[in-house]
Amino acid sequence: MPSAIVVGGGIAGLVMARDLVLGGFEVTLLEASDHLGGKIARHTVAGLVLDAGAESFATRHDTVAHLARQLGLGSDIARPNPQGAWLQTAEGRAYPLPRTGILGIPGTPLAADVIEVVGFWAALRGQLDELMLGFVGSKERSLGRLVRRRMGRRVLEQLVAPVTLGIHSRHPDELDVDVVAPGLRAAMLDTGSLAHAVRELRDAAPAGTAVSGIVGGMFELVEALARDLERFGVTVRLKSPVTAVEASFVTLLDGQLLEADQVVLAAPLANPLATTGQPDPTPAIVLATLVVDAPELDGAPRGTGVLVARGSSDAPFRAKALTHATAKWDWLAERATPHRHVLRLSYDGAAAARVSDAQLRGQALHDAGELLGIALVEVSVVAFARVEWSAPSSRPEPIDGVTLIGEGVAGTGLAAVIAQVRVASGGLLEEVEA
Predict the structure, then answer these.
(1) Could you tell me how far CA 290 lies from the centroid of its own chain?
(2) Tally of CA atoms within 13 A in the half-sphere of 395 that contains its CB
(3) pLDDT value at residue 276
């Protein structure tokens, strides 16, 4: 039986370990922390078990839903409330997010809901995309540069950036268009404009929303994967940081050397010089969860949440996005008591990491009221929780004989990560069969 060592117990490492053990490998999975799942995690706030990290997944190509069905969770796939989200402009006004777009890129730049957000002249600039030749900007790999060149700066900053910052925690300039919007550049060349490409991709997409979730929380995926690994005989070792990998060998922090036929790296390596007394690196994202008793939110005044355009603000920091979770997910609303609502706000880690929990709680309550258009008071807060997440992994350097997987290779988002893992695991299984 061939053997494999998978380094990293996030979603990428878990899926890879499952694929390999089902393909006949003897698999050992090494995880540096004391738990599996990485950024797909759970926490309990006011008696409600909630996602502490990712709370939905992109439905494109059926990648995540297919995994959920393999894990026996097919009947638990949940669609969000079709009301959709709102967008707050840099000037502080709130509007429903235009519906004919992909990642905020408008399929009809002169549509009334687009003009309402960016203004007539910016929408007219976006419409100029229709007059350009299809190859203009087609070689741009950056989503930001592509949209800026085709539709202008204001469409980029007022529509696209709030969406990508809310979904991927990155500005469009930092995102690879082929990863976050596969097929968009090819469709632009084929149809002759970016707007036409957006409409074509939307028309070709399966009916329904672009995202889905799992009843109970996305962490159900991790727990189902962990059960499968135990059932199929994968050796899982927690608190086992790895400092070096090479073809057929891994070195643990304690100096132990492990050998296998295949080595898969699904997480950054541990720093061999690190000490427990070192401060944690500044987080990229800080999530503040508020559970409030507020009957005035029963009508979901801002749909499923609010995305915030960057702009001037006197506050030292403010929320980048708000998810009204009990309005977004029917299953969660059913588990909460009447008039109880779960609000999740995301903040830039560099600013929010410097403040205390009490300060963050106060800021989150203020921001939630401002974004939802409702005056929320301290007495309405039932519970508060804070979670910090590191920045997405940077692309690792190639290592001879080692298979690299994870968000550093695939880009952010469950759909991208799982799709890349499935290609990599298929390649390793083919090698064994050959």
Answers:
(1) 20
(2) 8
(3) 46
Give the CA dihedral 309, 165, 176, 67, nearest 10 degrees: -140
pLDDT of 206 reads 55
User: Do the beta carbons of residue 15 and residue 228 sit within 8 Å?
Assistant: no
Q: What is the pLDDT of residue 315?
A: 52
Q: Which residues of 203-226 are buried (b: 16+ CB within 10 A; e: fewer)?
A: eeeeeeebbbbbbbbbbbbbbbbb
Does the pTM surpass 0.90? The reply is: no
Query: For the chain, what percent of residues have pLDDT higher than 70?
Result: 94
d(CA 338, CA 293): 8
Amino acid identity at 269: L
Q: Is the pLDDT of residue 326 over 60?
A: yes
**Domains in the chain, start-ordered, CATH in brackets?**
3-40+62-69+220-276+393-433 (3.50.50.60), 97-206 (1.10.3110.10), 285-389 (3.90.660.20)
Q: Report the C-alpha gap between 330 and 145 in whole angstroms.
A: 38
Beta bridge mates, 31:
none
Average pLDDT of the chain, as a whole number: 90
pLDDT tens digit sequence for 128-173: 999 998 888 889 999 999 999 999 999 999 899 988 887 777 889 9
Residue pair 305/85 in contact by the 8 Å Cβ criterion: yes
Residue 342's Cα: distance from chain center in Å?
19
Pairing mode of beta strands 26-30, 3-7 = parallel
**Residue 434 has which token pair?**
């050959």
pLDDT tens digits, residue range 286-300? 999 999 999 999 999
Q: How far is CA 383 from CA 52, 168, 211, 245, 362, in A?
A: 14, 27, 28, 43, 12
Burial category of 63 from C-beta neighbours within 10 Å (exposed 0-12, middle 13-18, buried 19 and up): buried
> How many angstroms separate the CA atoms of 333 and 15, rounded?
30
pLDDT value at position 302? 94
- Per-residue pLDDT of 76-94, as tens digits, reads 999 999 888 998 887 788 8
